[in-house]
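Fill in residues.
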C-alpha cells in the first residue's frame, strides 16, 4: 500500500470542504487512477509570515509530486518514495525533519489494492468509504531546490509528498497487510498544526485513531484495467 488511488472531486470542492485559505494555481484535475510521480492535492497548515506573523496558521491546498524527494538529495531519481511506514518514519533520516514540522493530508475518495488469492493470482479491489465520502491520508512533505534552475524559475522548487502507512485493520486485514493512516476531522487540525512538534508519539497516536475509520471501509473487486497507468475514468471504480 498504496500504489494507486482516486481523487474524483474537483479542487474547488476541496477548497470549500476543508476551509482552505490559499489554493495553488495549478491544482490537479480529478483522477480515478493516480499513480506514483503524478501530482496530487496536498493540504498543509503554514505559519503566517510578515505582517501576519503570530496569527493563526494559513491552510493551503497545493499540488505536490507523489513521491517524496528529500531536501538534501540529488533530486527525483530512482523509485519514488510514495509511502512511509508510520512505525519508523520518526527515526528515518529521510523523513525525520518532515515528521517534526512538515505534515500534510492528501484527500482521496479511495485507493486500489491487489489482493492475493489462494490460487496465487491477484485481483484488484477498490477500497473506499460509503457514499464516496472523502478520506484523508496522513502525509509528510518536503521542498527540494533544484540547484540548476534560475532564481524565480517555476522549476526551482519541487513540493513532494509521501503517504504514511500502518498495519491494516477492519475489512482490510483480509486484503493487504498495510493501509494508509486515515485521519479524521477531529484530529486533522492537530496533525497539520505547524506549531506542534512532531515525534513518534504523535505518529502512533494518530495511527491508532484510524481504527474507527477503517471499520467503515468498503471493499469491492474492480477491473484489471486499473493496472494500466494510462487508464483513467469513473468506470475503473465500478464493481465487477
Amino acid at each position: 500500500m498504496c500504489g494507486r488511488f482516486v481523487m474524483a472531486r474537483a479542487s474547488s470542492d476541496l477548497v470549500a470542504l476543508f476551509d482552505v485559505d490559499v489554493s495553488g494555481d495549478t491544482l490537479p484535475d480529478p483522477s480515478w487512477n493516480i499513480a506514483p510521480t503524478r501530482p496530487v492535492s496536498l493540504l498543509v497548515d503554514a505559519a503566517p509570515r510578515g505582517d501576519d506573523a503570530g496569527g493563526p496558521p494559513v491552510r493551503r491546498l497545493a499540488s505536490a509530486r507523489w513521491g517524496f524527494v528529500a531536501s538534501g538529495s540529488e533530486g527525483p531519481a530512482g523509485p519514488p518514495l510514495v509511502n512511509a511506514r508510520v512505525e519508523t518514519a520518526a527515526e528515518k533520516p529521510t523523513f525525520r525533519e518532515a515528521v517534526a514540522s512538515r505534515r500534510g493530508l492528501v484527500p482521496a475518495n479511495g485507493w486500489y489494492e491487489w489482493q492475493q488469492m489462494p490460487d496465487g493470482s491477484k485481483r484488484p479491489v477498490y477500497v473506499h468509504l460509503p457514499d464516496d465520502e472523502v478520506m484523508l491520508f496522513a502525509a509528510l512533505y518536503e521542498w527540494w531546490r533544484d540547484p540548476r534552475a534560475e532564481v524565480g524559475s517555476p522549476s526551482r522548487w519541487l513540493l513532494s509528498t509521501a503517504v504514511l502507512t500502518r498495519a491494516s485493520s477492519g475489512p482490510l486485514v483480509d486484503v493487504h497487510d498495510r493501509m494508509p493512516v486515515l485521519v479524521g476531522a477531529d484530529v486533522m487540525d492537530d496533525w497539520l498544526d505547524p506549531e506542534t512538534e512532531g515525534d513518534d508519539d504523535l505518529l502512533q497516536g494518530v495511527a491508532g485513531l484510524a481504527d474507527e475509520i477503517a471499520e467503515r471501509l468498503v471493499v469491492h473487486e474492480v477491473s484489471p484495467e486499473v493496472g494500466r497507468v494510462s487508464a483513467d475514468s469513473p468506470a475503473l471504480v465500478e464493481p465487477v
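The mean pLDDT is 93.
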